[in-house]
Amino acid sequence: MSASSPNSSMNLEKAQFMIQLLFGVMKVSYGKEVADFYTEGRTDNDGYELKKAVSNAFGDYQLTCPTIRFGAHLAVNDNSYAYRLTFSTRDNWTGVQHGDELKYVFGNPFLYPNDYSKDEKQLSLTFIQTWTTFAKTGYNIITLLNTKYN
User: Helix, strand, or coil here: 70?
Assistant: First the structure.
């Protein structure tokens, strides 16, 4: 399954097998239930969506769920903040990936302005201001400004 080929030969049986194998390697007993959840409503004709289902199952188990659990643990005793990047310029099936925000946090759109759009420059500025304010004050600037981003 290469990142650039969404229409690889993926069928329902293969997707369910891969998810069950993934969770079996991680020594959990509910791999079949997880596979059923991620592939619900899919058929052999949904190769692209099945490929995403395998990727999402892995990403949720390795990154999303532990991050949410860690945040919930921290939030018990103090304020905690989180964000989920949904903006992506990738034109492949993978969408936003772990670490994609770093080019915006560290100002790449201003270092290489010809490679980035106006929206990407604004996103970068928002990240820089948010992270800088948090580092200085311990507060999330979006909370301070009462600004909502979707």
Answer: helix
